Amino acid sequence: MTSTTHLLYLHGFRSSPQSAKARQMAAYVQQHHPRVTFWCPQLPPSPQAAMALATQGVAHWPREAMAVVGSSLGGFYASWVAQQTACPSVMLNPAVHPARDLARYIGEQTSWHDPAERFFFLPEYISELQALDMHGRPPAAPEMAIIAKGDEVLDWREMVARYPAAQVTLLEGGEHALLAFAEYLPAVARFLRLA
Q: Which end of the chain has the least Cβ crowding within 10 Å, N or C?
């Protein structure tokens, strides 16, 4: 099996490459796997545009040596990317039904890391999310999911049910932000066989 030389990280809704988990992952890769190309793009609010950006960004990556990690809505996106590229994926408290859950966020939103930064979550984004849903498809490559029972945003039971074939790490407590993510970085790196 080849090792992973290219890693894509997808942040969650209202999040950014400045999120704690994205920064921890970037620092870990830089320190322990300096040969790995790491990319965490700022995703636009439109799911369709977000996946177009990701697809374009990895277009020249070696398919057999790439992997994707996604948090929350980014976990939902990671499942889509993994299906398109047949690459291994790691989901961190992944959104399972974003079309249902994000319907109440239609309108103006602020970014977590910069409340001065505003964007609009448009009604048509719901159907864009539905179009990206990979639910019910067998995974195209190995999957790992880190899920916190203490997640206050998403239901851990739905997450576990959504990834029946995944190697699941179920945390007894925890929270949506996965504050203990740093502890799981070595396991994520091993699972993805980072070069």
A: N
Contact criterion met (CB below 8 Å) for 72 and 16: no
Measured CA to CA, the distance from residue 94 to residue 155 in angstroms comes to 10
Please give the mean pLDDT across all residues of the chain. 96
CA dist 116 and 114 (Å) reads 5
Q: 144 φ, ψ to 5°?
A: -130, 140
For 145-173, write each residue's pLDDT tens digit.
999 999 999 999 999 999 999 999 999 99
Could you tell me the pTM of the whole model?
0.97
Give the neighbor-by-neighbor strand order of the sheet with 167-171. Answer: 37-39, 6-10, 66-71, 89-92, 143-148, 167-171
- Whole-angstrom distance, CA of residue 117 vs CA of residue 175: 25
